Give the backbone structure.
Amino acid sequence: MDQDFIRALRTAFSSEYSFLVKAQDAHWNVQGDEFYQDHLLFETIYQEVEESIDPFAEQLRQCQIFVPSGLAKMKSLSILDDFPADDLTCDVYKQVLLTDSDNLADLFASAFAVAEQNKEHGLSNFLADRQAAHRKHSWMLRASLVVEPGDTN
């Protein structure tokens, strides 16, 4: 089995799982004037990602790739870092998740290309759908950020 293929998929899975945990963190800890709206936004995001985790793991197993398990293993494979603190403002949660979601969309595009090279077209479709899901998450996060005059967010 192609080691680059295995590494790409295990990295994508671990990064997606990391994003799930971060979206849940934001959901649980958000505070502020728009608490309820932001709480629901983060919930919408983490629930969508959560629903993809088991099918993603099954896609890896169908390719005879073992799914990374354990937080330390996943953290070592993930492209995402933890939040910088526990008591962030809502806009910081949104900005960090937006950056992460954009990075995941790019990661899924790369994983898609690797899956196509390995003629794993069902997996490719799944990865394309994950890229599209992250584009939508990014759009919702970007649209909900407070935009100051002159800001190009």
